[in-house]
Specification:
- There is one protein chain.
- This protein has one domain (18-90).
- It is globular and about 30 Å long.
- The protein is mainly α.
- The termini are far apart.
- The chain is built from two helices and no strands.
- The structure holds iron/sulfur cluster (2 copies).
- One iron/sulfur cluster (SF4) binds at residues 1, 3, 12-13, 16-19, 68, 72, 79.
């Protein structure tokens, strides 16, 4: 996923994929018609943590619009923690 942080020009870490695991996703994903629960790895996330349907029309629109610069942290582990915390805060 691409991120566009406020006032910055950082880009998404290749091979991270934390935002394809930690948050829940209510949109239909090919192979996951009900979306996915928080903490569940998206079925379209490849073993090297890339989106297998990137750029395709059946990729959920929310994936393309995801902007999570503050939650990406300094590395993948931090992103998983921050996004999990964000999920907890926003799902109650
Ligand atoms: S958590 Fe951030 S850095 Fe990691 S894949 Fe998602 S947008 Fe990219
Ligand atoms: S469809 Fe692609 S971008 Fe969206 S959560 Fe799954 S792997 Fe990530």
């Amino acid at each position: 996923m691409k991120i566009v942080p406020p006032g910055g020009n950082l880009s998404c870490r290749t091979g991270c994929g934390a935002c394809c695991i930690a948050p829940s996703l209510s949109s239909r994903i090919p192979g996951m018609p009900q979306g996915k629960a928080a903490g569940l790895r998206c079925i379209q996330l490849t073993l090297d943590n890339r989106c297998a349907i990137y750029g395709m029309t059946h990729r959920p629109a929310v994936c393309g619009s995801f902007q999570a610069s503050d939650s990406c942290g300094a590395n993948r582990e931090e992103a998983l923690q921050l996004l999990a915390e964000l999920e907890r805060l926003t799902s109650t």
